[in-house]
Amino acid sequence: MYIDARAAFPQGGTLYHDDPVLGKAVGHAATEALMGDLIHLPAGDAELTVDITGSAPIERVEIFNGLKRLETVRPYTDSELGNRVRVVWEGAEYRGRFRQVIWDGEATVSENRIVDARAINFFNRDKTLDRVGESGLRWRALTTGNFGGFDMWLEDPYAGTLKLETPLIKCGVPCEEIGYEDEVLDNAGILPRFVRIFRLPADNPHRRLRIERRIAVKDGRDNPIFIKLTQEDGHVAWTSPIYFFRMMRS
To answer: Is CATH 1.20.1070.10 correct for 2-72+206-245?
Structure first.
């Protein structure tokens, strides 16, 4: 995959390669910055431009300012959604050892039929996704902070109810209510543990994406601006931040 993230600020700022708060650092006037740069921006906002070429179709791109997610960008529109439903589980029990979360479970679709199904991020050979008749799936899976799941293609995109059963999450969601935005089913412990259900195009052709956004720079703090790319095949990439701050720190 290829990601190019850069920012422009025509009003001008001072670009540093070393953090001024850690000691003497030499800066120079600039109107553009790349990943890893540190910019003192006296006024105004930044214009973020991101160009992406994926090694697989793009599921989503998330824009962050530190821990705050500013926006989720998908390359496809609501009108492109089809008969493919994605179920994703994610999380860890603890930080460090003994962090495994077991997601062994099954899914059934009432008054409908599963045409095809495909596993996502099943890394261990003994963890499998299996068909159960024409309308069911059964799997063995775990996460340790990462995510896994599956896609399923339905004969009727909107008929029936998807019933999901795992050790942590048990639910029933009408297929007609599964759409563009994530349906999040949370069972957080010490760390987040959750399931997301959403709809995708039956065949997503989007491997390239260009994003242009105005980013507000907050006063009196660091603003580490970065993106997270998630591909349909389960691969994830983060860019290094572009760091903005409004005033010299002491």
So the answer is: no
